[in-house]
Specification:
InterPro entries: FAD/NAD-bd_sf (IPR036188), GMC_OxRdtase (IPR012132), GMC_OxRdtase_N (IPR000172), GMC_OxRtase_C (IPR007867)
Mean pLDDT: 95
CATH architecture of one domain: 2-Layer Sandwich
Oligomer: single chain
Radius of gyration: 23 Å
Protein name: Glucose dehydrogenase
Distance between the termini: 24 Å
Strand content: 15-25%
Pfam families: GMC_oxred_C, GMC_oxred_N
Shape: globular
Keywords: FAD, Flavoprotein
Number of helices: 15
Bound molecules: flavin-adenine dinucleotide
Family: Belongs to the GMC oxidoreductase family.
CATH class of one domain: Alpha Beta
Amino acid sequence: MDSSEGWDHIVVGGGLAGCVVASRLKEYQPSARILVIEAGPDVSHNKEILQFQSLQFLGGQFDWAYKTLPQKHCDGREVDIPAGRALGGGSIINGCAWLRGSRADFDSWADLVGDRRWSYDGQLPYFKKTEKWYNDELADQHGHDGKFDIESPVSTNRLYPLAGITEQAWLSPSPGNDMNAGTNLGIGQLNENRRDGARQVAPLVYSLEDVTVLRDTMVGSILLSKEGADDEPKATGVRLADGTEIHGKQVIVSAGAYRAPQILMHSGLGPKEVLEKQGIETVLDASEVGQNFTDHVMMRMNWELKDPAQGYAIDFQKPNPLFSEPQFAKGAPASYVASAAVPRDGLEAAIAKDEGGKADPEHPLLKREFAMMETMVLYLAVPPLTPDGLHISSFLMAMKPTSRGTVTIASKDPADPPLLDPNYLATEVDKYVWRHSLRQAAKLMTGDTTVLGRDVVAGETPFGGFEPLTTDVSDEDLDKRVRGQGTSTYHGAGSCSMGSVVDTDLRFKGVQNLRVVDASAIPIAIGAHIQAAVYALAEQAAVIISQG
Ligand SMILES: Cc1cc2nc3c(=O)[nH]c(=O)nc-3n(C[C@H](O)[C@H](O)[C@H](O)COP(=O)(O)OP(=O)(O)OC[C@H]3O[C@@H](n4cnc5c(N)ncnc54)[C@H](O)[C@@H]3O)c2cc1C
């Protein structure tokens, strides 16, 4: 079929969500004509990608390699934000961490949009559709015949020598937690969506066999028609960056949190003042497009071992026989992920400072208890060091930021990158969470209350001219550290939020036949890595769309 013919559904962006929506719509509506248009290539059979164990493709040809605008609260730094540029989107280059987030996250999403389909219980059937879980524990929480094989260090027999000692450091509040069963407060196995260690990419797991895919093809804008003066605009197709028009009954934008707002703005759907500045005719003054943009801030730290001869850390120069066993190539060199809340009084004080007056107990962050900071300990040194057998490392990720930023445009040219301003660390809440959590990290890694701190770790090996992290560090030094070293966790979301830009059926408000289905529609900060939530969102969206 000529791709310019009338399609039932045109999916813009064949990323993680786009593949799910296209594949499921074809399954639910077998006679529907579905077109996916993806800016990047199809590399889903590339063996390097499938077998790949880390994030080596960052900055390469399958990465849009964005940079933020200078971050006001991060010493003016421009922070790198990678994003997948290929059929499969983020699933081609991401870290494969599989963490659902908590009941509290999804219930607050449902409260915000006033629709229980987006609560934890509302999303649970869709989480299950995505999973082929590896054991029968908490069976009511897991899918066993869903799309992705999920693996853990234990299910793949990766028994790291430091596992018990790292777990001991986080025994409170909830050891042995299943981080994908409704609560993520505590410590549990680091699960990954891998099959026997291999990456599983969205376009292979969600078959696109009977869907037409245009790859290496950039969409510039959405075609909109408006017949009478009072009529709502209607999406009638898309215009490619080279000017070609493709017509269809419905357009589903799945270009991700960075590009979805850009495509909408290039179509005349966005804040009027932004459109006017770029000489774009306003079809609908949609002031919320590109607002509410959020990302998780991450910090990485290397910790020197007291006795490297114990063989706790991977050494690229002198491989330890244990880590050379084949099972250790089946996942990230980590056993656990630990997530913690912060003290309520500190949180209340920070909220009061941000919002003025006394914190309202109904404030979304106080109404439920959330995992505010996630920690992973990796059994190897991370940049600027190379794995040297002398260091382990930890990654801290602040999962419930209250800072919100914007995605906007610099020009009318779809080839130009969007302007990304996540506005990291703008709020007192975010600063407080980091201060508290970095002190906790110092206590766990260097204090005498844990075996890790007492017997295993000698101290931090900082980089960038900072002093090693200790338990008696000042607030000022902690603020300086995170300002200077916080990076993206690559979890951009919220820039076409449900409730403001799209309704709870993912329809763009004020335009017919147009939907947005990707991370940009998530209206809150999910308290975990977000791919599982994006897959579940897309699964539920496909059901909703197929029902008309
Ligand atoms: C390096 C990295 C590591 C990550 N690690 C993890 C992890 O371990 N665990 C986790 O849960 N999450 C992780 N994530 C996040 C996760 O991959 C993303 O949240 C997810 O991919 C978002 O899905 P999406 O469908 O919204 O967007 P994407 O997957 O980014 O898909 C958008 C697609 O649209 C295409 N596109 C954009 N503009 C156009 C256009 N104009 N025309 C045509 N096509 C277009 C893009 O090329 C892309 O393929 C990581 C992300 C990155 C980048």
